[in-house]
Amino acid sequence: VAHGTSISSDSPAAESPLKEHPQLKITCVRAIPVS
Predict the structure, then answer these.
(1) 21 phi and psi, to 5 degrees?
(2) Rounded-to-integer distance, Cα 4 and Cα 33, Å
(3) Cα–chain-centroid distance for residue 35?
(4) Within 13 A of 3's CA, how many CA atoms are on the CB side?
(5) Cα 30 versus chain centre, distance
(6) One-letter-per-residue 3-state SS of the chain
(7) Single pTM value for the model
(8) How far apart are alpha carbons 32 and 29 in whole angstroms?
């Protein structure tokens, strides 16, 4: 959860990586149900 704390400080920074790596978000969500 270390990343969450760092991102918390930068609200726009959290959105930047999410938009830059949309595949990552999809993989995470997919991994949850697949698991």
Answers:
(1) -120, 65
(2) 22
(3) 18
(4) 5
(5) 13
(6) CHHHHHHHHCHHHHHHHHHHCHHHHHHHHHHHHHC
(7) 0.17
(8) 5
